[in-house]
Amino acid sequence: MTTIRELARRSGVSVATVSRVLNTPEVVSPDTRERVLRIAAETGYMRNESARTLATKKSNLIGLVWDTDHRQPGWRHPFFQEILVALKSALSSHGLHLLMLANPSDADDGMRDQHIRAVRRHNLDGVVLIDNGSHDPALLALAEDAVPCVSIDLAVAGPGTTYVTSDNEGGARAAARHLIERGHRRIATIAGPQRTAPGQQRLTGFRAELDANGIALPEEYVVGGDFYFDSGFTCMQRLLALPDPPTAVFAAGDAMAVGALRAAAAGGLRIPEDVALVGFDDIDLAALVQPALTTVAQDKPGFGTAAADALLAMLAGDPAPAAPIILPTHLVVRGTT
Question: Where would I find the HTH lacI-type domain in this sequence (predicted)?
Fold first, then answer.
């Protein structure tokens, strides 16, 4: 295997010059840089990344902590898949790589510190957190550590921490306003889990818009889902079985909205003629169901890009943003309203 010394000898330059070509190429003349890289390719030279990490104190690795437990469906949700693709792409363009950190099980001793030990063992440059709503103490401990940390839809606090979220309240208000403008007054919601910030904020926004328009929200018109298809189906069945069922429903997530759509069809109802429906997320499936789903679109690639940009800025020495990064939402009107 070609060593850096052999590469320097064949290139006719010093070991220090080869090191600069590989690590800070902008300070080396174009001719020298081209010659060294050409000979490196010809000889199959590969950098020893472990040695490089020890020397620079940087691993170019970003830890990703996500609910990957096979018993939880979070990793399969299409919303998170799009975020992950954008995050990986943005980091890769800056020479950074994602390292998935396994979630500790409930039986693990020292659960709170396990992620911190992994960060130090792998010498990670930063961490991205995606929570399933459990507010796992192991995640919160990471945010309190010194490593730069960005979370997705999870309000965290720490010395080098920020988080990215959507304008959930504003999006929910837009959904409710749209249904009101369509003439509906009996409007129910399939809410997201209230242990999550998006679930709470979307219900708050929905309530606020109805209240601003003088529209009552009976207690039985608020049913709790979990952001997944099955809960949407079940919750819609409950709403349609009421003595005075709603004429419109806001589902706080598209997967639940698709479940609600199927429940309405199973009950022999037409959408939007018998009951109108609005979702939240604008996942790919929203445009493919029949009728196509009216929904509040989130900037899913923007989540990944914003998280990567915030992390890169902190790695460059900038302080963590004092306020969360809030991405705009917009209503996409299709066939269910």
Answer: 2-56
DSSP letters along 183-245, please? Answer: T--SEEEEEPPTTSHHHHHHHHHHHHHHHHTT----GGGEEE--SSHHHHHHHHHHHHTSSS-
Secondary structure (DSSP) of 87-118: HHHHHHTTT-EEEEEPPPPTT-TTHHHHHHHH
Q: Per residue in 158-183, pLDDT tens? A: 778 889 999 999 999 999 999 999 99
Residue 22 one-letter amino acid: L
Instruction: Please check whether residue 109 lies inside any domain of the structure.
Output: yes
Question: Is residue 92 domain-shared with residue 139, that is, in the same domain?
Answer: yes
Specify whether 116 is located in the same domain as 205.
Answer: no
305 and 286 together in one domain = no
Residue whose C-alpha is closest to residue 123's, from 58, 180, 49, 64: 58
Q: Which domain holds residue 43?
A: 4-47
Q: What is the pTM of this model?
A: 0.77
What number of helices (H) and strands (E) belong to the chain? 12, 12
Q: Give the pLDDT confidence of 97-155 residue by residue, as tens digits.
A: 888 776 554 444 454 566 666 676 767 888 888 865 555 666 666 666 668 889 888 88
Asked whether the beta carbons of 211 and 179 are under 8 A apart, the reply is no
Provide the CA 150 distance to its chain's centre, in angstroms: 10
DSSP 326: E
C-beta pairs of 3-11 under 8 Å, 24+ apart in sequence: 4/45, 4/47, 6/43, 7/36, 7/39, 7/40, 7/43, 7/45, 10/39, 10/43, 11/35, 11/36, 11/39
b/e per residue, 288-306, with b = 16+ CB within 10 A?
A: ebeeebbbbbbbbebbbbb
In a domain, 12, yes or no: yes
CATH, residue 216? 3.40.50.2300
Which amino acid does the sequence have at 309? D
Tell me the percentage of the chain whose pLDDT exceeds 90: 46
SS3 38: helix
User: Which of 63-77, 227-241, 315-329 has the highest average model confidence (pLDDT)?
Assistant: 227-241
